[in-house]
Amino acid sequence: MKRLDGKITLVTGAASGIGAATVRLMAREGASVVIADIHDETGEAIAQEIHLDGGKAFFVHLDVSREDDWTAAIEATVARYSGLDVLVNNAGVYLAKSCEEATYSDWQRICSVNLAGVFLGTKLALPALREKARTSSQGSAIINMSSTVGLKGSSVDPLYSMTKGGITTFTKSTAIEFGNKGYRIRVNSVHPGPVETEMAAQHRKADLNDPAALEAARQAIAASLPIKRVAMPADIATAVVFLASDDAGFMTGSSLVIDGGAMA
Length: 264
Ligand SMILES: NC(=O)c1ccc[n+]([C@@H]2O[C@H](COP(=O)([O-])OP(=O)(O)OC[C@H]3O[C@@H](n4cnc5c(N)ncnc54)[C@H](O)[C@@H]3O)[C@@H](O)[C@H]2O)c1
Fold this sequence. Notes:
It is a single chain. With about 260 residues, this protein is an alpha/beta fold. The chain has one domain (about 10-195, about 230-260): NAD(P)-binding Rossmann-like Domain (Rossmann fold). Helix content is about 45%, strand content about 15%. It has helices spanning about 15-30, 40-50, 65-80, 105-115, 115-135, 160-180, 200-205, 210-225, 235-245, and strands at about 10, 30-35, 55-60, 85-90, 140-145, 185-190, 255-260. Strands 3-2-1-4-5-6-7 form a seven-stranded parallel beta sheet, with helices on both faces. Strand 5, helix 6 (about 160-180) and strand 6 form a beta-alpha-beta unit. Nicotinamide-adenine-dinucleotide binds near residues 91 and 197.
């Protein structure tokens, strides 16, 4: 018996980084997976790869800031797989600008993806998640991708930190709301420190054309962490799979930190 046997999962931002590692692992753990992203070609390629590996997956184009896209993605999921057990609100963008540099339109852009995206996904997936929760042993699950800077300040991106802090408290608030309403939907957030993805490369954009500087930056991060290595997307995917599984059946409203000990 695999950990996600029979579960239907939708992961946003699944064409890259943490989201891609998550859908690959979910499929290997027996889930029927929906890969949702704005990058159609890479998303389709990951679906194809999962098929070749013997798993179940399909891609939907979903811009998480667009209500119509959400409605269509949930409808496609329910039509294809007959329901939805797990929603992972993973899509997110990073700005890498100080408060002085950032503009109001930067603020609107980052909030439309990182905050509106999580709200719309939670609201529009709710009927399907509630329906499945009625018959599953530990209910349905929502996992929201926050960050360590959703629990403390950021020295490089205050607007990103603002959105991730919002995700942290929205997670707890919806865990209370859905719990009190008897919906049997667990809502938890995940808080990675720096992870080796496109986003981390963007964070170190000054070093992108200088492999030696990039490697030095990577080693500096590793040296600063008690665990003495940098995080890979799979390190975060394993935690998401745990929260999606019935093993986390008594967890709701929690903030799961996966940071190699940085916050310690
Ligand atoms: N990489 C890190 O260091 C790190 C640390 C903490 C938290 N996170 C969070 O993890 C999540 C995944 O980040 P990642 O590092 O894998 O980044 P990534 O850039 O590799 O992947 C992000 C994915 O989100 C998609 N995306 C962007 N805007 C979208 C939109 N409007 N609708 C749908 N999809 C959209 C992108 O196409 C991409 O596939 C994000 O929420 C990020 O904030 C990342």
